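This is your field. Have a critical look at both lines of this record:
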Amino acid sequence: MHASGLLESLTGLFEAVWREALPLRLGADGVVSEQGLPGPDATDLQVLSLLLAGMTDASVAKQLELGLRTVQRRVKGLMELAGVTTRLQLGWHAYERGWVARH
């Protein structure tokens, strides 16, 4: 192979996809999963569900009897876990990763 614009573009595309990749595990049944990766705990899922229902951080804190700062810290942790920068992206990723169900 020789250097070309197409090769450089494909290399750039590969590097961009590779940076966003998640490690997958092959289970005993041959099914690929994200098993073993850290995920949200039960309280994180409650916080996420209430936020997706349209509640504010303060309302979520009151509903779950948590501090406002605790809710904000958990949301930030969920965003980092999902690798997103906005709450809208968090909602989408939560659905895509099966953290929440769509009714």
Observations:
- The chain has five helices and two strands.
- The two ends are 51 Å apart (CA to CA).
- The mean pLDDT is 83.
